[in-house]
Design a protein that fits this description.
By secondary structure, this protein is an alpha+beta fold. Helix content is 33%, strand content 21%. The chain contains three helices and eight strands; from the N terminus they run βββαβααββββ. The strands form two sheets. Strands 4, 5, 6, 7 and 8 form a five-stranded mixed beta sheet that branches. Strands 1-2-3 form a three-stranded antiparallel beta sheet, with no helix packed on it. It starts with 7 loop residues before the first strand and ends in a 9-residue tail after the last strand.
Length: 231
């Protein structure tokens, strides 16, 4: 075999093509193998498949993350709604007791003098932390009309804690006089008019998550007077 610049091809049994000619060892007849076009194509397909697999993995991880985020959002909204319903329930239940003159067991504070507000009341109404408001000692735990419903039980809502209610006496009001000279409102000396008593009801409630707090406050006027001697 002569070493030269020309090349000639020899076919082997498995169909692969090899070249012999001007390369190292050509004088010894050592063949130089090379890949066929089909083999190169299979390598490209493998790389493309791996890229697509990586993209699908990234998409799956992203979709899972969005699903978990949506689940947390829905859970947070449900907890906030439960807290608001509980606060509303506590307020309406307390107003009902005032209206029916059955609020003797409620802790009531006299806040009719703005310059003489109990510090416990201030802490309860202004604190953003449920635990601090509870530890202030100003609120009454609300457990339904009969005082025996535990709203932390799963059957009753599964809340993180029962709601707290604060009752304050704000002063008196009077209905207008029936005569031609109508009596003034609060503080008037209008004779023959029925006095009405003004109360402020503040409720603080937790949802199913202890980090969800709702505070609602209303003013309620009733002809029934509750003794406010809490201190």
């Amino acid at each position: 075999m002569t070493v030269g610049a020309s090349l000639h091809r020899t076919r082997v049994a498995d169909g692969a093509q090899v070249r012999t000619g001007a390369h190292v060892g050509a004088g010894l007849g050592i063949p130089r193998p090379h890949f066929t076009r089909r083999g190169r194509q299979q390598g490209v397909v493998l790389i493309v498949a791996l890229i697509f697999l990586l993209l699908l993995t990234i998409m799956a991880i992203s979709a899972t993350g969005r699903s978990l985020l949506q689940e947390r959002i829905v859970g947070g909204l449900a907890s906030a709604q439960a807290a608001e319903w509980m606060a509303e329930t506590a307020i309406r239940g307390t107003e009902w007791r005032l209206y029916n003159n059955t609020g003797a067991g409620l802790a009531c504070y006299d806040s009719s003098q703005p310059g003489n507000i109990n510090s416990k009341v201030t802490t309860f109404r202004t604190s953003t932390d449920y635990t601090i408001a509870k530890n202030s000692g100003a609120g009454t735990v609300y457990q339904g009309a009969g005082g025996s419903t535990d709203y932390t039980q799963a059957a009753n809502g599964g809340l993180a804690a029962n709601a707290l209610v604060l009752l304050e006496y704000l002063g008196t009001d009077r209905a207008p006089d029936a005569s031609s000279s109508h009596a003034a409102e609060s503080g008037s000396s209008g004779a023959g008019t029925t006095p009405y008593y003004i109360y402020r009801v503040t409720a603080r409630a937790l949802g199913t998550n202890p980090n969800t707090v709702r505070t609602l406050e209303t003013t309620f006027v009733t002809p029934s007077q509750v003794s406010c001697v809490a201190s």
